[in-house]
Amino acid sequence: MIFYLLLKKIIHRKISFSIRIFLFLLINCFGINIHSSAQSNVANKYGLYVIADISSFKNSIAADTNKRMINIQNCLPGIIADLRYATSNNFMKQKLYPAIHTSYLRLAAVNALKKVVDELRKENLTLKIFDAYRPYSTTEKMWEVVKDDRYAADPAKGSGHNRGIAVDLTLVDIITKKELPMGTGFDNFSDTAHTDFTALPSAIMHHRNILKSVMEKYGFISLDTEWWHFSLPNAKCFELLDLSFDQLKKIDRHR
Questions:
Q1: Are 136 and 130 in contact (CB under 8 A)?
Q2: What is the average pLDDT score of the chain?
Q3: Which DSSP symbol is given to 191?
Q4: In terms of Cα–Cα distance, which of 165, 144, 143, 167 is closest to 153?
Q5: Tell me, what's the pLDDT at 10?
Q6: CA 101, CA 164: separation in Å to the nearest integer?
Q7: 78 vs 57: CA distance, rounded Å
Q8: Which long-range contacts (CB under 8 A, 24 or more apart) does 57-60 make?
Q9: Angle value at C-alpha 150, between 146 and 154, nearest 5 degrees
Q10: Residue 148 pLDDT
């Protein structure tokens, strides 16, 4: 910032036109960089740092490639996407995302999920994904409706979805293309959706156990109140993100 102010003073002195042009361009470029990085270095009203610009995100993944955001369907052929928040078929009864057909996860999560998919394929099963990466601003909207941290992430803490390391999913029979019965649907805010709820037919308990065991085998942890929700355990190692899906697509195109 000091360097930036000094340049502004210098540019108004009597120097050659070409040097003034050079300094003007330098100031503007330098100023853009300051602005871009500052967005993620300023805490929000909850005291959290949220990356909302491409430049800051690229800086974070330069230090750790596991933080890259990966298009799931490009890397995991055979999975099914039923992205509920891109439709009105969700507890909010409204579209929270644009009309997207795939979602994103950090590279570390995608690598783990690939092992899950490979193992399930041996049993003629695959995954259907309801949600993966979720922009932080969407979490804020959800909290306005469901202020219960058993079923919605408190924006004062942020979500594993916002960090790109959480995924909501279920099992699908590869042959019939039908979901295996799990006792409840997605986003069911009742005790029946809890992972310790056992008053269910043995076949449904078996399906839940298949999903939970294979996800945990490859490093994911489950959420007690949602049988469909899994995340990597080291959430705080990944920054909160409020990047739009258009921004993620742009990063993909320029990679």
A1: no
A2: 86
A3: G
A4: 143
A5: 44
A6: 17
A7: 29
A8: 57/241, 57/243, 57/251, 58/251, 60/239
A9: 60
A10: 82
